């Protein structure tokens, strides 16, 4: 699984950090930090975080659990 956040799009709403705090965190008031290769056990939380982003700044490859995505690690 691989995460990419378009930091130019991100507006710091922090919905992702609220829904998946082990993967996303706010550094200061507006700077997002995240783990680009999160643990697969976070899949459900990540799906919710991606869906909750109001500006759709988060892209996640491998959230569907397909074998191709798992082999990409």
What does this protein structure show overall?
- With 73 residues, the protein is an alpha+beta fold.
- It has a single domain (2-71), classed as Alpha-Beta Plaits, CATH 3.30.70.
- It contains three helices and four strands.
- A two-stranded antiparallel sheet has the order 1-4.
Give the helices and strands, then pairings.
Layout: E1 2-5, H1 15-19, E2 24-27, E3 31-34, H2 43-52, E4 58-61, H3 67-71
Antiparallel strand pairs: 1-4, 2-3
**Structural class by secondary-structure content:** alpha+beta
Low-confidence stretches: 67-73
3D shape: globular
Mean pLDDT over the residues: 88
Largest sheet: 2 strands, antiparallel
Could you give a quick summary of the protein structure above?
The protein has 73 residues and is of the alpha+beta class. The chain is built from 3 helices and 4 strands.
Pick out its properties.
4 strands; two-stranded antiparallel ribbon; Fe-S_cluster_ET; 3 helices; disordered C terminus; metal-binding; 73 residues; alpha+beta; 3Fe-4S; Ferredoxin
